[in-house]
């Protein structure tokens, strides 16, 4: 009998076979984050994204409508475009120069008469996918006739916070992308593990009251909210690093994880996304992007000056003191909660190879981990 990590066998976190099933049955059949609405903001702009087994690109047409297509030339299947770019009027395959307009129609076949006699171009347009915008984010779905994205996120709509990201602006200094040497489920399960907040992050997330958190699943989506800790809540506007973006009577941290890997980290002074992209059985890319108040540089400078006294006294510290650190850049001593999470995820993944690995009892605060595993099993047809 294989070793289990609660409801899932360890193979679910280590084997290529499981990974391939998830790419086929989960990430090829759901709405997938592609970017912010500003990323494709003018005619001819395009971006591409991997959605399970499918590479899909979004392009804005001359009518300013967004359209999504499978990134596959209808001649021999070569990918048409690279990740990001802009074109004036057409998209040309680099292999044989078959050319499509921004609406996906095949408009030109080089040496058509000599090589083919005649090609019925109306039958060889690009294959469509679905595209939509929700909460300032562009999403794509491999199915051209997918159910509306509003239906997909409807169960979570009223529980992810009062923020209006469409009214905020992107703050590029918050943008990061990094790889974690762990399975995507390990990364998601760390994100939704409430038990670890008071322990792994005892020095880095102490400004929120983890014991008062409210959390649970709504359909396939995980919801989480916790209030500020008392000393952080008092005169909070003097302690926020950036200008406030939500009403004071709705203070707190809203940190849902929307299926299958769209995390949102929303607090009193910002709105951030945490996108989980599986790259392999033991490799995951995480993309972070953030939005803040649409305010002047002076407003940000004033707020930073106002809050500096609190943060100097309050401080952020790692789980271990500097004298206990294994090196100068020990992730457990640097006071960076992201580095702490990466360390924990990678160390857990490493243990899965051991024949001595087994899990103990699940804490109440780990119940979301069990629920997430149930969602995975349902999508794989095993629940």
User: What oligomeric state best describes the polypeptide chains here?
Assistant: single chain
What's the gyration radius in Å? 23 Å
**Overall geometric form:** globular
Question: What top-tier CATH class of the largest domain fits best?
Answer: Alpha Beta
- Number of E-state strands: 21
How many strands, which pairing sense, and closed or not: the largest β-sheet? 7 strands, antiparallel
Structural class: alpha+beta
- N-to-C terminal Cα separation, in Å? 19 Å
Uncertain regions spanning at least 5 consecutive residues? none
If you had to describe this structure to a student in words, what would you say it looks like?
With 383 residues, the protein is an alpha+beta fold. It has 2 domains: 32-145, Rieske Iron-sulfur Protein (3-layer Sandwich); 155-379, Naphthalene 1,2-dioxygenase Alpha Subunit, Chain A, domain 1 (Alpha-Beta Complex). The chain has helices at residues 11-14, 16-25, 112-116, 149-153, 184-191, 230-233, 297-314, 337-351, 367-379; strands at 4-5, 8-9, 32-36, 45-51, 54-60, 66-70, 84-86, 90-92, 99-101, 106-108, 128-134, 137-141, 169-170, 176-180, 214-218, 221-226, 253-254, 257-258, 262-267, 270-280, 283-292. The mean pLDDT is 92.
Give a concise summary.
This protein has helices at residues 11-14, 16-25, 112-116, 149-153, 184-191, 230-233, 297-314, 337-351, 367-379; strands spanning 4-5, 8-9, 32-36, 45-51, 54-60, 66-70, 84-86, 90-92, 99-101, 106-108, 128-134, 137-141, 169-170, 176-180, 214-218, 221-226, 253-254, 257-258, 262-267, 270-280, 283-292. With 383 residues, the chain is of the alpha+beta class.
């Amino acid at each position: 009998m294989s070793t289990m990590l609660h409801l899932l066998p360890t193979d679910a976190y280590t084997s290529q076979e499981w990974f391939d099933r998830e790419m086929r049955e989960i990430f090829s059949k759901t709405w997938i984050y592609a970017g912010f609405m500003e990323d494709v903001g003018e005619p001819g702009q395009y971006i591409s994204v991997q959605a399970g087994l499918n590479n899909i690109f979004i392009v804005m047409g001359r009518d300013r409508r967004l359209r999504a297509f499978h990134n596959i030339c209808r001649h021999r299947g070569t990918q048409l475009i690279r990740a990001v770019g802009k074109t004036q009027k057409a998209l040309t395959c680099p292999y044989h120069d078959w050319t499509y307009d921004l609406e996906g129609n095949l408009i030109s076949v080089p040496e058509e008469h000599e090589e083919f006699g005649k090609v019925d171009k109306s039958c060889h347009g690009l294959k469509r996918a679905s595209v939509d915008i929700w909460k300032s984010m562009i999403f794509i779905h491999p199915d051209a006739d997918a159910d509306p994205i509003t239906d997909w996120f409807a169960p979570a709509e009223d529980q992810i916070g009062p923020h209006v990201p469409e009214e905020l602006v992107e703050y590029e200094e918050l943008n990061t992308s990094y790889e974690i040497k762990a399975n995507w489920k390990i990364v998601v399960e760390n994100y939704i593990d409430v038990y670890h907040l008071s322990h792994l992050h005892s020095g880095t997330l102490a400004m929120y009251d983890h014991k008062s958190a409210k959390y649970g699943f709504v359909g396939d989506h995980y919801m989480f909210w916790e209030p500020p800790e008392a000393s952080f809540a008092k005169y909070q506007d003097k302690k926020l690093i950036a200008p406030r973006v939500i009403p004071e009577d709705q203070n707190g941290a809203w940190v849902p994880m929307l299926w299958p890997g769209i995390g949102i980290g929303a607090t009193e002074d910002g709105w951030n996304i945490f996108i989980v992209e599986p790259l392999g059985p033991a490799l995951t890319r995480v993309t972070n992007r953030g939005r803040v108040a649409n305010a002047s540089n002076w407003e940000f400078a004033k707020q930073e000056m106002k809050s500096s006294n609190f943060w100097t006294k309050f401080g952020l510290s790692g789980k271990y003191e500097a004298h206990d650190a294994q090196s100068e850049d020990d992730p457990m001593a640097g006071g960076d909660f992201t580095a702490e999470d990466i360390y924990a995820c990678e160390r857990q993944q490493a243990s899965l190879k051991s024949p001595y690995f087994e899990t103990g009892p699940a804490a109440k605060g780990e119940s979301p981990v069990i629920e997430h595993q149930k969602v995975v099993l349902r999508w794989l047809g095993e629940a």
